[in-house]
# Entry
Amino acid sequence: LLSVAAFLAVLTNDSAADVAALALRSLSIDGFASEASARSMLALVWAECFDEARPYLDSAIEEARAAGDGGRLSVALATRAWLELRLGELEAAELDTRTALSMAALPAPPLYRALNTGLLVKALVDLGRLDEAEAALELVDGEARSGSMPEGVLRLARGRLRMEQGRPAEALEDYLAVGRDLREASVVGPAFS
# Structure
């Protein structure tokens, strides 16, 4: 329950200190091998508690690799990529997302594919590599419609790419759709973007 509280706290724009206290308490109880830990680590990243989040993410990635757990590895790599994007470590974010997307042999939910692709597109756009970003989007064509948070990440990235390509009407369509989905989910904090 602490991980859920941390996740909701960051989505409703509670203070970073409150989010960190909840997330770190959850991680001290649950470790980093559970769905709860994934929420807690993401909450730390979204609350910009990067120094606190990185060691947990690195450990979670190593444990998931050792266990051959594609789902846990995919979400941990995505969360670390999100941290790297926020720190301007664009090449590292690209590497983590490409690693997650290349693990076809390890089963992972399709939502993690959408999440990692969205983060990869964001990194590539920030690096000015628009053609590569477009190619990455083509691999998940049609997957950004359900209204889930990972698919919202994909739509935000696609919208950003469309703006950079000089296609503002398409970008606006993605931005408005994500805004509606976030409003319906009662997400009021800016951490998601």
Notes: The chain has a mean pLDDT of 89. Residues 50-67 form the longest helix (18 residues).
